[in-house]
Amino acid sequence: MLDLRETRAILAQTPAALRLLVGAVGNDGLEFHEAPGAWNVREVLCHLAEGEIEDWVPRIDLMLGERSDKRFAPFNREGGFIRYRGMTCAELLDEFARLRAESLAAFDRFAITPAQLACTGIHPEFGAVTLEQLLATWVTHDFAHTAQISRSLVRHFGRQVGPWKKYFSLLG
What we know:
Layout: H1 4-22, H2 27-30, H3 41-54, H4 56-64, H5 79-83, H6 89-110, E1 120-123, E2 127-130, H7 131-157
Antiparallel strand pairs: 1-2
């Protein structure tokens, strides 16, 4: 069973972890695309901020609420690209931290119990999903995008490592 305290603690640390990871990186690294169609750091931050508004808390609210229709609204994975167009990475980090704090306040208000982890909602692609699965996905999503940002920065800076390239599997 998902540990709710651990889940909350991980979600709470993500904004600071991202700030530490990218705070000193210059614009070339932040705008670097590791491959065609891959998101750069700025785009990942836009996506993360958008998820705080349109994805996690609204879905938890729906799953725990009294409405009989438990269908999730589809989430536009690139919607944040439009909403946050023109914002710097520093501004996006601030926005994500602010929005995550609001999400954590909502998480606390929900006062989710272990029994409620079995509550379900209807995902537009997957069908019935549980609250436990949604919360585990939220944490996994944070770690996956942190890894994506790290990988992108490895590949950006790794272009100049010369013969040390052989020691970095991410540069292979």
